[in-house]
Amino acid sequence: MILKQSLPFAMLYMLMACYNRIDSVMIERLLPKDIASAQAGIYASAFRLLDALVMIAYLFSVILMPLFSKMIKEKEDLRPITRTSFSFLYFFAITAVVLLLCYKMPILNLLYNDHVQESANVFSILIPGIIPISFTYIFGSLLTANGNMKLLNITAIAGICVNVAVNLILIPQLQARGAAIASLSTQSVVSLLQIIIAFKELKIPFSVIPWGSCFLYAILFIPLAKYSTYILHCNVIISLLIMGCIAIAIGFGTRLIKLKEAGMFKGNNNVIKS
Prior knowledge:
- The chain has 10 helices and no strands.
- It is an all-alpha fold.
- The chain has one domain (13-265).
- The longest helix is centred in the N-terminal third of the chain and has 41 residues, at 33-73.
- The radius of gyration is 20 Å and the shape is flat.
- The model is unreliable at 267-274 (pLDDT under 50).
């Protein structure tokens, strides 16, 4: 009985692992042997930071899962926690993507000695994947807590189909960059499907997302981050810390993040509504 009940979860984990990790394998299989290893290494060097940063979103989902489960079981209003979790992960994802793209060359030069420019080209395509992956951890957790495992597995199968198809078309032409495009396309499709299904299944209105704050934060922070690369001539780590502090200030200023919303993670799993 335990194995039978666990099967949908195991299947989902396996399917997600496939579309998240198959890119490097396909690079080695689809390219000539003399360039396959080098291209796989370039892809891996760009992928490492993405892989590390999405762990923050993953840890967030670990907290969200019991909250969602409890609230669904007790038929509580899901709108406040959906709004709060979306705001926090939107802030994290946009800030991380913008700063990493603006400072990609100093960051990659700090990490690697070889193929830095090639890694930067792949990095520019891969890193925006933080955004759909972060949203997947919110709405995927919501659907898991609601028991919609069949629908989640269907979205994962769709992700594999998109990933394999785009890789087959683009890797022979664009090599590691083709795999990066396939990865970003897959994550975007899966995220969009899960968002639509979650809102439909749980009857959450789209107005729960703070569209105004999200838009205002983006139009204020993105130009500022780009401009900072011309005026901040200090160490890249210090520059990122300075811009991180500015991002937090803008986040509070636009009311994208609110201090009292952090109270949703109280030990008794109660949600403090803003």
